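Quick review question:
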């Protein structure tokens, strides 16, 4: 009941209506509307319909909310947390073959790159339990391969936890990735885990420490003697450039970008051990670094993004992230219409990723505040993303 009232109030504010104005338009008493918005009274079907007409909104959306999708993902976080809490004592059951598990893990990795978080949230708890059971039953020869599959599945689970604000769960998953890496017997696994671990430094705003962590990982990474090793080092340099920007270290950011650019020029754009890397990924990170460095880098970022868009073959999450970064730069430059167009592009590419991105929500709210005579499309977008 309270959620319905909150959605009505949020939609009213999005339409720039006062309570008396809405009450008058819906032919309700002001006291009744106040009780509905406060959550102490549930509107009847007729009353809800009248309010919806006055707000130019779908009654079902006022009743169930646009946030239903995100709530379904969050509802799956407790089962995910439960299965990782018992990673060392999985439930009884059959042990699937390594080939079957590998197929399931590849699917999860594709969904992660495509920002399909709801699918992941439903798919991962039983898969993680199966993988833990397989690892406990594996022979010494089988154990490294199963451990690598487990790391990839943990990474997919972390994408859900991190994007939906479950920072403690994300940190636990990264710790389990580090634990599983000790069983993997593959030097590239450690570079991949170090790349993901940087999320904990972003979340804590410990950017200088995060940069130090990545530079140590780069020192430990294998030499770039083939595409897989080249991509592993290059991805670490890309990540280091962004966190150096957040730390305000322009020299370090430029140094790591230059290294990433050199490494990326030597291989084809692609997915290497679960991470996109190549010339296009580096270009996207150049814009991300400019955003990290702040609004005084507007010209630099616009120059980087001018007359170029990420190829459609790139992962949806990464392309969406590019447009979210670009929207922020355009907003800083006073290009409000362009900024909104970039946010809409991000939504078309990866709606789940865009909706949960704090910058996308923040910049949408800023656009609505600046564009007093905003269009219905901006208002609807703000309602969708929760920026009201």
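Suggested answer, residue by residue:
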């Amino acid at each position: 009941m309270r959620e319905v009232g909150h959605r009505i109030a949020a939609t009213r504010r999005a339409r720039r209506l006062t309570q008396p104005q809405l009450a008058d338009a819906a032919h309700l008493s002001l006291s009744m509307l106040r009780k509905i918005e406060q959550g102490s009274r549930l509107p009847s079907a007729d009353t809800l319909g009248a309010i919806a007409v006055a707000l130019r909104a779908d009654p079902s959306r006022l009743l169930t909310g646009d946030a239903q999708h995100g709530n379904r993902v969050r509802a799956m976080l407790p089962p995910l947390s439960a299965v990782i809490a018992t990673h060392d004592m999985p439930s009884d059951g059959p042990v699937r073959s390594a080939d079957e598990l590998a197929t399931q893990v590849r699917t999860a990795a594709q969904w992660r790159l495509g920002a399909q978080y709801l699918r992941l949230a439903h798919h991962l708890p039983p898969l993680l339990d199966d993988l833990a059971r397989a690892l406990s039953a594996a022979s010494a020869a089988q154990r490294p391969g199963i451990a690598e599959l487990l790391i990839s599945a943990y990474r997919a689970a972390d994408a859900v936890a991190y994007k939906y604000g479950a920072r403690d769960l994300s940190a636990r998953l990264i710790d389990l990735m580090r634990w599983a890496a000790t069983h993997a017997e593959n030097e590239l696994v450690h570079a991949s885990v170090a790349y993901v671990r940087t999320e904990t430094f972003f979340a804590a705003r410990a950017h200088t420490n995060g940069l130090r962590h990545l530079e140590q990982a780069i020192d430990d990474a294998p030499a770039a003697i083939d595409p897989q090793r080249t991509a592993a080092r290059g991805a670490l340099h890309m990540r280091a450039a962004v966190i150096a920007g957040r730390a305000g270290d322009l020299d370090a950011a430029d140094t790591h970008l230059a290294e990433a650019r050199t490494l990326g020029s030597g291989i084809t754009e692609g997915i290497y051990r679960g991470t996109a890397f190549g010339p296009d990924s580096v270009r996207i990170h150049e814009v991300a670094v400019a955003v990290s460095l702040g609004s005084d880098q507007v010209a630099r970022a616009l120059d980087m993004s001018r007359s170029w868009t990420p190829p459609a073959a790139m992962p949806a999450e990464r392309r969406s992230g590019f447009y979210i970064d670009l929207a922020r730069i355009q907003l800083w430059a006073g290009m409000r219409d362009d900024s909104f167009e970039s946010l809409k592009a991000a939504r078309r590419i990866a709606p789940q990723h865009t909706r949960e991105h704090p910058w996308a929500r923040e910049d949408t709210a800023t656009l609505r505040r600046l564009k007093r005579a905003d269009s219905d499309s901006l208002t609807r977008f703000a309602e969708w993303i929760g920026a009201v």
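Why it works: The longest strand covers residues 270-272. The mean pLDDT is 91.
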